[in-house]
């Protein structure tokens, strides 16, 4: 599996899934600002920064730092950004290690960094207006993430956490319901070893309950929240864009995760994966993952 191609193939799936109501609220919150300091953690190949650059509501002066722990992702993001922003009508130039993207009145300076999010957040003394964590919080401890985000945010800062996984994985059709349930339980247990397979709901309660001491807590901690489920299915026998590749990768990830749990016979896991790959090849597989988008103060 090529992880950079997987992240790129994920873009159209995310485009469909993102919760418009949560994004509208983000846009409302930013409308009065003419300057914005953004930090994105777990930025992958830089898909989110270009998605935001396409939005009409982004303020005119933006500094955007996008970091990822994997150098290969960051290298790929540096290659993709000029191409994708030029396609959006931006003039792009390099200024040291930054990209300066200009279009009309808007000027966005983007810097990519290879770093661990928690180490970076602990070390930085620059306040941030908007912290973006797209498909990230489920990979870590949501309580640690929220505490680190809040420590870095300016007093009126916001954390935008779209595509936060929340414990439901569906592959259709199902041949053996009992086996499928065991396999997916094992997959979710594996996610819990390094992250949190129920991160969406946990972040929701943490953000609502937390932050009382600094006067921003109570129910006001969450400005908007809503579902952003991935749903991938074929039409006219084929999947859109590069989504067949996305599905093959998801199948491989589930297979690898379940295998490493050693709770299910290896042969049966291989059979499951092989049947799923075949179903993708003929456009039969439907895949759903339950996720939440959150906008947190
Ligand atoms: C599921 S991917 C999402 C990437 C991107 N946000 C997107 O949606 O296309 C999660 C990303 O977080 C990065 N990551 C995982 N742990 C990290 C950490 N502790 N600090 C920074 N990045 C991390 C991974 O390398 C990966 O690129």
Summary of the model, kept short:
The protein has 297 residues and is α/β, with parallel strands linked by helices. It has helices at 3-17, 20-30, 47-53, 71-87, 117-123, 142-152, 177-194, 199-209, 243-261, 266-281, and strands at residues 35-41, 61-68, 91-95, 98-103, 106-114, 128-132, 153-172, 222-227, 230-232, 286-296. Strands 1, 2, 3, 4, 5, 6, 7, 8, 9 and 10 form a 10-stranded mixed beta sheet that branches.
Architecture overview:
The protein has 297 residues and is an alpha/beta fold. It has a single domain (3-296), classed as Rossmann fold (3-Layer(aba) Sandwich), CATH 3.40.50. The chain has helices at 3-17, 20-30, 47-53, 71-87, 117-123, 142-152, 177-194, 199-209, 243-261, 266-281, and strands spanning 35-41, 61-68, 91-95, 98-103, 106-114, 128-132, 153-172, 222-227, 230-232, 286-296. Strands 1, 2, 3, 4, 5, 6, 7, 8, 9 and 10 form a ten-stranded mixed sheet that branches. Strand 6 (128-132), helix 6 and strand 7 form a beta-alpha-beta unit. Helix 1 (3-17) crosses helix 9 (243-261) and helix 9 (243-261) packs antiparallel against helix 10. It is globular. Residues 211-218 have low confidence and may be disordered. The structure holds S-adenosylmethionine. S-adenosylmethionine (SAM) binds at residues 7, 10, 41-44, 47-48, 67-70, 73, 116-118, 134-136, 139.
Topology summary:
Elements: H1 3-17, H2 20-30, E1 35-41, H3 47-53, E2 61-68, H4 71-87, E3 91-95, E4 98-103, E5 106-114, H5 117-123, E6 128-132, H6 142-152, E7 153-172, H7 177-194, H8 199-209, E8 222-227, E9 230-232, H9 243-261, H10 266-281, E10 286-296
Parallel strand pairs: 1-2, 1-6, 2-5, 6-7
Antiparallel strand pairs: 3-4, 4-5, 7-10, 8-10, 9-10
The protein binds S-adenosylmethionine (SAM).
């Amino acid at each position: 599996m090529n992880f950079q191609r997987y992240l790129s193939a994920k873009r159209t799936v995310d485009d469909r899934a993102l919760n418009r109501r949560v994004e509208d609220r983000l846009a409302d919150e930013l409308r009065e600002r003419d300057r914005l300091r953004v930090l994105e953690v777990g930025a992958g190949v830089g898909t989110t920064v270009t998605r935001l650059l396409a939005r009409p509501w982004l303020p005119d002066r933006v500094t955007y730092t996008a970091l990822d722990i994997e150098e290969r992702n960051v290298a790929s993001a540096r290659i993709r950004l000029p191409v994708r922003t030029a396609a959006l009508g931006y003039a792009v130039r390099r200024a040291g290690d930054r990209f300066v993207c200009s279009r009309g009145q808007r000027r966005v300076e983007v810097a990519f960094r290879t770093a661990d999010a928690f180490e970076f957040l602990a070390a930085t003394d620059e306040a941030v207006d908007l912290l973006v964590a797209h498909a990230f919080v489920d990979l870590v401890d949501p309580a640690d993430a929220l505490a680190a985000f809040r420590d870095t945010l300016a007093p009126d800062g916001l954390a935008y956490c779209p595509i936060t996984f929340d414990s439901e994985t569906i592959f259709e059709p199902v041949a053996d319901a009992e086996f499928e349930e065991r396999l997916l339980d094992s997959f979710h247990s594996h996610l819990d070893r390094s992250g949190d397979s129920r991160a969406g709901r946990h972040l929701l309660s943490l953000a609502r309950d937390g932050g009382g001491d600094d006067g921003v807590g109570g129910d006001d901690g969450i400005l908007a929240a809503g579902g952003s489920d991935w749903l991938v299915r074929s039409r006219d026998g084929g999947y859109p864009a590069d989504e067949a590749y996305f599905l093959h990768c998801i199948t491989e990830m589930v297979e690898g995760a379940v295998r490493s749990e050693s709770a299910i016979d290896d042969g049966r896991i291989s059979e499951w994966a092989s049947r799923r790959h075949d179903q993708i090849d003929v456009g039969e597989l439907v895949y759903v993952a339950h996720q939440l988008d959150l906008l947190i103060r």
